[in-house]
Amino acid sequence: MSLSIELNQGHISPLGANVVDSGVNFAVYAPFAKQLYVCLFDASGHTEVLKLAMNNNEGGIWSLYISPLASGTLYGYRAEGDYQPKKGLFFNSQKLLIDPYAKDLFGEFTWSERHYGQMPIGTFSAVNNAIDMPKSKVTELQPYKGKKPAHGWSKTVIYECHVKGATARHPSIPSQLQGTYLGLSHASFIEHLRKLGVTTLELLPVHSFISEQFLTAKGLQNYWGYNSLNFFTPHKDYLVNGEVAEFQQMVTKLHEADIEVILDVVYNHTAEAGSDGPILSWRGLNNLGYYRSINNNPEVYINDTGCGNTLNIDDPYTLKMVLDSLRYWVEVMGVDGFRFDLATILGRTPHGFSQTHSFLQAINQDPVLSQVKLIAEPWDIGPGGYQLGAFPAPWREWNDKYRDVVRRFWQGEGNMLPELAKRLHGSFDLFEHNLRGPLNSINFITSHDGFTLTDLVSYEQKHNEANGEQNRDGHSANYSFNCGFEGFTDDVEITKLRLQQQKNLLLTLLLSKGVPMLSAGSEMGHSQGGNNNAYCQNNRTSWLAWKDSQRQHSLTRFIDDVLSIRKEHNVFKHSVFLHDSDNRFCVDWYSEESKTMEESDWHDGSKQFLMYSLRDLQAKTALLIILNASKVKVKCQLPVSNGLSTWSLAISSVDQAMIKSTDEFEVAAQSSWVFTANLEDECHG
Q1: Which helix (H) or strand (E) segment is 628 a member of?
Q2: pLDDT surpasses 50 at 209
Q3: For residue 535, what pLDDT is reported?
Q4: What is the distance of C-alpha 386 from the center of its chain?
Q5: 560 catalytic, yes or no?
Q6: What is the spatial distance between Cα 198 and Cα 333, in angstroms, rounded to a whole number?
Q7: What residue stretches are annotated with the Glycosyl hydrolase family 13 catalytic domain (predicted)?
C-alpha cells in the first residue's frame, strides 16, 4: 500500500466505503462521537498501516476521501468519545468497528475478552481487539442485470431452506460446491425444485452472522444464522472462492430457471447482544440510535427479541440503514423479496405496534421495495407482540394459526371443524378486515423452527438434548403424534401410517387457499431425530440426506401431483374470499351422507370428517376434497347434485387407493382424498 496519499473532506453520501475515481470515499454516522478514524490494513488483515482522522459534517456524519485507493482495501473504524454505559455511550477507540455499510468482510471473527468495553466488569478495557475482528473490505459490485421471474402470489409456491443444509450432502453436486450459494444454483438442485413445482426459494439468513459465545463455549455453532454481524455482506462460509459476487451468480442461475429468491432477514436485533455484550459495530458508533433502551435509563436495553437487544427502527438513520440494506439486496444482489424475522419489531413505536409505523410507510412508498415480495413473521416476545393479521397491504404473513389448526385436526383432536374450514379457505377472519385476501396468508405445516414433517408424525416429545440445554429449549406445544411409537422404528404398519399422515398434511396444505410454503426435506422424509430447535446443529442432524431413491421419493412425487391439481384450478388463484355472492366460485360443505352440513354438524365435537366441493362455474370444473382424521373408516356418499358429472379420483393419501363406486365407498381411517368432476349444467350455490 502506497503511503503517498491525498486526503480531502469527502462526501456524506452514500454512507459506507465507495470507490470514486481513483480513491475511496468513507462516510459513517456517529453523531455523539468526538472523533472518528478510518484505519487501513495490509492485505493480510493483520497489520494496521494507517489511522486517518475523519472530518465531521452537519448531521453527525463523518467523512474522508482517500486517493489513491482501490477496491479490495481492508479497513475498519475507531471512534473516540465518552465511555459512559449509564448514559448509553460506548465509545472506545481501542475497539475496531465493522462499517455498518460494509459490502464485504475479510477474515474470521474470534471470541475474546478484547471485544468487551469493560474487562473485568467495571474496569475500562484499553485492549485492542483488531486481531480478533474481520476487516471491512472495499467492494464494487455492479447492479444486478438478470431478468427476474416476477411470479404473482397466486402462482407462488415457497420452498424454505438453509443454504448449507440443502446441498451439503448432495451426491450429484461437486464437493467444493456443496453447502454453498453455487450449490443451490447447481443443475441438480434446480432440477429437484422444478420437479417439486416450487416457484420461490426462501433462504434462511444469509447476512453475515456469528455464533453466540455461549454456543462456541459448548463446541456448537449458530447454524440458522439469526445473529447478524452486518446487513450488507453475504455470509462468507457459503462462498466457494470468497467472492461475494457468487451470490449474484446463484441468483442469476435460479432466475434463468424461473425460480425466485427471497431472503429471511433479521433486522430486529444484532450480534452485539445486551448492553454488557461486545462492541463490534453499531454500539461503538451510535448506541443510543441503533438500539432501544428504557426511557431515562439508557443503559438498560429493551429486549423484545429475547436476544439481548432490539434494533431501534424509530431512529431515522437506523431506518435508513435497513431500507438501504433492503434496496441493496434487491438492486445489486438481485433478490425478489424478504421474509422479516420477528417483524412486529419493525412496526414498534414506544407505545406499541402501529400499522402506520414509518418503516411500513417507507416500504409502501418506496419505488423499489414496494414491488418485491414482503412476508412478515407477525410476532415478537414484547408487549402486544402477536400481530397476525395486523400488517397492511401488500404484506403477507406467516399464519401459525393455520399450522396449529391443521396439525391438531390430523392429530385427532375434536371440535376442530369450524376453525379448520376458516384456515382451509384463507383465514378470512384474520385478513379480510383490512381489505386483504386469502393470498395474504402464508400457509405452512412445518418450517425451520420446530419438528420436520417426518418428526411431526414420529415424535410426541421434543428431543433436544444435543443442544446442551437439558432439553429445556424449543417449543413444547407441537401438536405432534408418533403413530404408536416414539422415534425411529422398522415396524411396517407404523411406517406406512406415518407416510400416510405426511401425505394428509401435505395435501391439506397444498389445496388450501393461501400461499403454500414447504420446508426443505418435507419431500424426502428428513428427520432431525426429534430435535425441534436445531438452530445450533451444523451437522447431519440438519443437513438433508440425499440419496438416489429419495430423489424419486414418494413424497416428492406426491407433492408434484397435488401441486398439479392446484395449478389446474383457478379457485386457488382467486385473490378475494369466497362468499355466497361470488358469481364464479361456489363452496359447499357436506356430511358423510352427502347432505348439506347443518349447524349441529359443525358443532358436533366428535366429528373428525370434513367433505367439501369447490366449483368453478366459468371453467365448469369441480373439486371434491375429503379429510378423515378419525381412526376408523367412514362410509361416505359423494354428492351428485348441482349439475355434476361422475366424480373421478384424482389423488389420495392411501397408497393404491381403489374405489369400486363413487356413489358410496369407505373412506379409510386417517386419510385424505381428492376427486374431480365437470359441471354439465350451469349451477349456482
Answers
A1: strand 621-628
A2: yes
A3: 98
A4: 17
A5: no
A6: 21
A7: 156-566
Residue 501: all three cell numbers together: 399422515
Which three-class secondary structure string do you get for 212-279? CHHHHCCCCCCCCCCCECCCCCECHHHCCCCCCHHHHHHHHHHHHCCCEEEEEECCCCCCCCCCCCCC
- Is 599 marked active-site? no
Query: Does residue 290 have a pLDDT over 80?
Result: yes
Mean pLDDT, the chain, whole residue set: 95
pLDDT confidence of residue 685: 42
Residue by residue, DSSP assigns 37-104 as: EEEEE-TTSS-EEEEEE-EE-GGGEEEEEEES--TT-EEEEEEES-EEGGGTEE--TTS-B--TT-S-
Q: Which long-range contacts (CB under 8 A, 24 or more apart) does 147-150 make?
A: 147/255, 148/255, 148/260, 148/334, 148/336, 149/199, 149/255, 149/258, 149/259, 149/260, 149/336, 150/260, 150/336
Instruction: Name residues whose C-beta falls within 8 Å of residue 252's C-beta, 6 or more positions apart in sequence.
Output: 144, 146, 185, 334
Structural domains in the chain plus CATH codes = 6-137 (2.60.40.10), 579-678 (2.60.40.1180)
User: What is the arithmetic mean of pLDDT over 114-126?
Assistant: 88
CA distances from 6 to 69, 105, 413, 490, 498 (A): 10, 25, 74, 73, 70
Give, in degrees to the nearest 5, the angle at Cα 141 between 139 and 144: 160
Gap between the Cα atoms of 681 and 674, Å rounded: 22
Q: pLDDT tens digits, residue range 526-557?
A: 999 999 999 999 999 999 999 864 557 999 99
> Would you place residue 664 in the very low, low, confident or very high pLDDT band (cuts 50, 70, 90)?
confident
- Give the DSSP letter string of 295-315: TTEEEEEP-SSSSS--B-TTS
Q: CA-to-CA distance for 38 and 471, rounded, in angstroms?
A: 46
pLDDT single digits (tens) 469-516: 999 999 999 999 999 999 999 999 999 999 999 999 999 999 999 999
Q: Which of 647, 634, 633 is nearest to 680 (CA)?
A: 647
As a three-state string, the secondary structure of 556-595 is HHHHHHHHHHHHHCHHHCCCCCCCCCCCCEEEEEECCCCC
- By residue count, the chain amounts to 685
Distance CA 243, CA 233 (A): 11
| pLDDT surpassing 50 at residue 683 | no
Q: Report the pLDDT value the prediction gives residue 645, as an integer from 0 to 100.
A: 75
Active-site choice (104, 246, 264, 377): 377
Q: What is the pLDDT of residue 547?
A: 82
Q: Each residue of 612-645: pLDDT tens digit? A: 999 999 999 999 999 999 999 999 999 987 677 7
Helix axes 400-411, 417-424, angle to 10 degrees: 130
Q: What is the pLDDT of residue 655?
A: 82
Residue 467: closest CA among 227, 211, 218: 218
Helix or strand (DSSP H, E) at 106:
strand 105-106
Distance CA 464, CA 453 (A): 16
| C-beta separation of 358 from 323 below 8 A | no
Instruction: Name the active-site residue from 48, 260, 304, 341.
Output: 341
- Determine which helix (DSSP H) or strand (DSSP E) holds 18, and give its type and residue range: strand 16-20
Nearest Cα residue to 209 out of 279, 137, 141, 134: 134
Task: Kindly tell me if the per-residue pLDDT of 224 is higher than 80.
Answer: yes
Which residue type, as a one-letter code, is found at position 558? F
Q: What is the pLDDT of residues 324-364, one digit of tens each?
A: 999 999 999 999 999 999 999 999 998 899 999 999 999 99
- % of the chain at pLDDT higher than 90: 92
* Residue for grid cell 456524519: 61
- Is residue 674 a contact partner of residue 511, using CB atoms and an 8 Å limit? yes
- 3-state helix vs strand vs coil in the chain, percent to 5: 25, 25, 50
Query: DSSP letters along 520-567, please?
Result: TTTTTT---TT-S-GGG--STTTS----TTGGG-HHHHHHHHHHHHHH
Entry pTM: 0.96
What's the rounded mean pLDDT across residues 558-587? 95
